[in-house]
Design goal:
Layout lengths: L1 E2 L31 E10 L5 E7 L2 E2 L18 H11 L3 H7 L7 H6 L3 H20 L11 H10 L10 H21 L2 E6 L4 E6 L2
Antiparallel strand pairs: 1-6, 2-3, 2-5, 3-4, 5-6
Helix pairs in contact: 1-6
Length: 207
Amino acid sequence: MRTATVANPPRRFRQAYRKDTFDAGHPDNERFPRRMMIDFATTHDGNERPIIRVFHKGEPYGDPLTDNAEEPDGYGFHDAIHLSFTAVLGWSPLTRKLLGLKRKSNPTVDEVQDGARALYTEEGLSTMIFAYARDYNWLEGKASVSSELLRMIRNMTSHLEVGNCTEGEWERAIVQAFSVWREIKKRGSGTLVLNLDERSISFKGSQ
């Protein structure tokens, strides 16, 4: 078994990360588990097109995905980005929706933070970040991203609770996301281990 590691954030963003969580104070059934394991598997359709299936505790986690592209690029594994947001930032409207953890006990939070606009914002971020990483060899060997990308992210999320996250936290989430994405894309299957207490996501799979 092998666990992928990720480099520390660069000095310019090395700072204390938030100890609080966005769902603190909410009922347990509206809070992210502190540790999660998400399994990925690749099957093929009748035309030998790869189909990515994701599972949580043996149950389907979202719909099967393909790259949705003429040239395969691994986009079918992009849930790794959302899961890194969950682990490192403690934020992901998509993960909340798929795990049934929307904060319905607070109607305003449910609508604004866990609703459709927040979900679409997250999907837009993941698409933008994926395109950025593609231009930089999927962040292979990199421990940082551009200040311009981070400014765009801060601008897009300024109306959301995640707007309180630092650029260092975002950078860490992005670098870790592609550290595990590269591993799971290479193998086609494996498990992502989320540790929200350590703000980390890692890949676990067979050699």
